[in-house]
Amino acid sequence: MNIFQAKMSTAEFNKLSTFIYNEYGIKLPPVKKTMLESRLQKRLHALQFSTFREYCDFAFSNQGKHTEIIPMIDLVTTNKTDFFREPVHFDFLQTYILPELIRASPSRPLKVWSAGCSSGEEPYTLAMVLQEYAETHPPLNYSVMATDISTQVLNKAITAVYSEERIAGIPMTLKRKYFLKSKDAVKRTVRIVPHIRSKVQFARLNFMDDVLDVPADFDLVFCRNVIIYFDKPTQEKVINKLCDKIKPGGYFFLGHSESITGMTLPLQQLKPTIFRKI
């Protein structure tokens, strides 16, 4: 049997999708069966299995739970991101939030969390924005924590190497200042400069953990285009966990397509997707 044509039964899909939802909060309705089947073909190939029954038996075995679940989740998660995505957030950060936070605590380091950081574009953008502000408003000091559930994208983020096309929309002044060009004329890649890399710390985190193992004193939390993969009750539960990690008076950012309407949260809306913790 050709393993690239292995078919996933409804029972196998239900078993996998229920596990993924219960453990990671990601909802996979029946219409996602073809997508899941397609993405997991790579794992069947790597493990030399010819059926999804074999794969399920292994994934839920004692060995599989230790070695296979993370590669599975890496393939299931969607990781679309860009530098300076949703620029209105960064404009509001520079013109309103940073001046206010610095007035309130001029000597205290600013702590920022990119929750669901994907391959690093968001936390590095935050570091660049904060660095630009710090240079004209000393003595601002800052750090960025960045977390994601996917080890695959975290490894890419830590490496901080991107194709030149990924930074095409960034102003030339920032490109020259914050990106190093590869000497390889064929690959045409860039790398984030060491100073900005040093400002960002990466870690793997599952929002479904009972306790999120991160500090509880962030000034800013960005969780953009992440909760769209959760159902409404899970969204509310996750955002409340994130809010527990924000200082009173700190700020929370969602993606433009996300909403907290109907949720009970300690947040005051300032803009459609910008909130202050109350």
Reconstruct the topology from this structure:
Blueprint: H1 10-24, H2 33-47, H3 52-59, H4 62-67, H5 69-76, H6 87-104, E1 110-115, H7 121-136, E2 142-148, H8 151-159, E3 161-163, H9 172-178, E4 179-181, E5 189-192, H10 194-198, E6 200-204, E7 218-223, H11 232-243, E8 246-254, E9 267-271, E10 274-277
Parallel strand pairs: 1-2, 1-7, 2-6, 7-8
Antiparallel strand pairs: 3-5, 4-5, 8-10, 9-10
Helix pairs in contact: 2-5
Estimate the helix proportion, in percent: 40-55%
**Which CATH C-level class of the largest domain is it?**
Alpha Beta
Q: Tell me the series of helices and strands, N- to C-terminal.
A: HHHHHHEHEHEHEEHEEHEEE
CATH topology of the largest domain: Rossmann fold
Q: Report mean pLDDT, rounded to a whole number.
A: 93
Number of helices: 11
- Oligomeric state: single chain
- Summed up, the domain count is 2
Describe it:
This protein folds into two domains: 74 residues, Orthogonal Bundle (Chemotaxis Receptor Methyltransferase Cher, domain 1), CATH 1.10.155; 191 residues, Rossmann fold (3-Layer(aba) Sandwich). It has a seven-stranded mixed beta sheet with strand order 6-2-1-7-8-10-9. Strands 3-5-4 form a three-stranded antiparallel beta sheet. Helix 2 crosses helix 5. The chain contains eleven helices and ten strands. A hairpin with a 7-residue loop joins strand 4 and strand 5. The protein is an alpha/beta fold and 278 residues long. The protein starts with 9 loop residues before the first helix and ends with a strand.
